[in-house]
């Protein structure tokens, strides 16, 4: 593989390679000199066509820690405002000697289209999806996995550590590319993955299934028939409590108001009452439960402000910290020798 566009077809071996490489970079980052010369002379271009704080900055920092040269592009101040196309923009960066393109776009499929164009041109440029529309956010999925695995075994993070753990993913699943990447990685690990959302904020397929199969216990199991990743199982709930019951980890998601038409946007007060995660609601979970959120957060909506800042439960800052090591691992594995390392 020389692009990372999705976690849908990641193998267990690939997850473990990323986790172990990230662990070794975490160790590098704990030293006084936090830099290694691994990607010296290579160019990493951050092509962000949609806003970002943490993904963009952590890819930039990761590239710098690996001694790569970085280029940062922002659509609103670029020649796209004069009519240049996305593919022509990518080719412009290619002509400057870019080795790795990190791409975020509000539309699903843009990183895939750029990767396909690079392959068509026969150039050895790697494309990393930094979040495309409602499709996927693979580096976030991997850093969430790394955050959880290093909590369980800091010295040897690996996929198998999640086998049998109950993980609830709560909130605006319909619009969440993070949820999609997390679903692939967590179901690959053998964790029990429970989704909880109002039916209007679930993908149509899940919502229809729930309505067709409505039962008293309000829990539904669906099994994927995808040829790439068959027999992945998901539990779907339209109430929060069964998803939280005995959960080991709770992943909260941002209510993505900017992607919603007015009729989908719930009353924020009611949403917080029904699906917002608070310390009181966590009493249903395993006593050692931890809470994640990819950020940015609507404080007091999907998670209470108090819980977000509570280091006993919240892994939100650890997720951001893990992001640098995980993105170093991805850049290293794709860029260090231009061979298919993962
Ligand atoms: N989690 C995440 O993608 O955050 P940013 O939009 O700030 O990059």
From TrEMBL:
It comes from Atlanticothrix silvestris CENA357. Pathway: Pyrimidine metabolism; UMP biosynthesis via de novo pathway; (S)-dihydroorotate from bicarbonate: step 2/3. GO terms for cellular component: cytosol. Heterododecamer (2C3:3R2) of six catalytic PyrB chains organized as two trimers (C3), and six regulatory PyrI chains organized as three dimers (R2). L-aspartate binds at residues 82, 177, 254. Transmembrane segments: none annotated. Catalyzes the condensation of carbamoyl phosphate and aspartate to form carbamoyl aspartate and inorganic phosphate, the committed step in the de novo pyrimidine nucleotide biosynthesis pathway. Carbamoyl phosphate binds at residues 54-55, 104, 137, 140, 295-296. Keywords: Pyrimidine biosynthesis, Transferase. It is an enzyme of class 2 (transferase). Pfam families: OTCace, OTCace_N. Residues 163-334 form the Aspartate/ornithine carbamoyltransferase Asp/Orn-binding domain. It catalyses: carbamoyl phosphate + L-aspartate = N-carbamoyl-L-aspartate + phosphate + H(+). SUPFAM superfamilies: Aspartate/ornithine carbamoyltransferase. It comes from the Bacteria. GO terms for molecular function: amino acid binding; aspartate carbamoyltransferase activity. Residues 3-148 form the Aspartate/ornithine carbamoyltransferase carbamoyl-P binding domain. HAMAP family: Asp_carb_tr (MF_00001). This is Aspartate carbamoyltransferase. Gene3D superfamilies: Aspartate/ornithine carbamoyltransferase (3.40.50.1370). One of its GO terms (biological process) is 'de novo' UMP biosynthetic process. The gene is pyrB. InterPro entries: Asp/Orn_carbamoyltranf_P-bd (IPR006132), Asp/Orn_carbamoylTrfase (IPR006130), Asp/Orn_carbamoylTrfase_sf (IPR036901), Asp_carbamoyltransf (IPR002082), Asp_carbamoyltransf_Asp/Orn-bd (IPR006131). Its EC number is 2.1.3.2.
């Amino acid at each position: 593989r020389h692009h990372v566009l999705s976690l849908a077809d990641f193998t267990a071996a690939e997850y473990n390679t990323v986790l172990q490489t990230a662990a070794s970079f975490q160790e590098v980052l704990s030293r006084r000199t936090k830099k290694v010369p691994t990607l010296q002379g290579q160019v990493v271009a951050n092509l962000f066509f949609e806003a970002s704080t943490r993904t963009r900055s952590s890819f930039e920092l990761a590239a710098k820690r690996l001694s790569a040269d970085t280029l940062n592009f922002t659509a609103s101040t670029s020649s796209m405002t004069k009519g240049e196309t996305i593919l022509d923009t990518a080719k412009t960066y290619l002509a400057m000697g870019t080795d790795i393109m990190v791409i975020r776009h509000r539309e699903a499929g843009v990183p895939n289209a750029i990767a396909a164009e690079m392959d068509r041109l026969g150039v050895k440029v790697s494309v990393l999806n930094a979040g495309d529309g409602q499709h996927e956010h693979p580096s976030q999925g991997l850093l969430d996995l790394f955050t959880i695995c290093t909590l369980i075994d800091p010295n040897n993070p690996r996929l198998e550590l999640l086998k049998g753990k109950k993980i609830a993913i709560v909130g605006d699943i319909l619009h969440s590319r993070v949820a999609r990447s997390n679903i692939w990685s967590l179901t690959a690990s053998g964790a029990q993955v429970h989704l909880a959302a109002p039916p209007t904020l679930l993908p149509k397929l899940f919502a229809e299934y729930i309505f067709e199969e409505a039962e008293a216990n309000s829990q539904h199991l669906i099994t994927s028939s995808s040829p790439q990743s068959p027999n992945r199982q998901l539990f779907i709930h339209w109430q929060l409590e069964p998803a939280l019951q005995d959960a080991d980890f709770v992943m909260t998601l941002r209510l993505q108001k900017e992607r919603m038409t007015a009729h989908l946007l719930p009353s924020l007060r009611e949403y917080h009452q029904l699906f917002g995660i608070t310390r009181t609601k966590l009493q249903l979970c395993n006593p050692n439960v931890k809470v994640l959120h990819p950020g940015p957060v609507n404080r007091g909506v999907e998670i209470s402000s108090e819980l977000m800042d509570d280091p006993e439960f919240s892994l939100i800052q650890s997720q951001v910290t893990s992001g640098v090591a995980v993105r170093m691992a991805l850049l290293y594995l794709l860029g260090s020798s231009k061979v298919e390392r993962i």
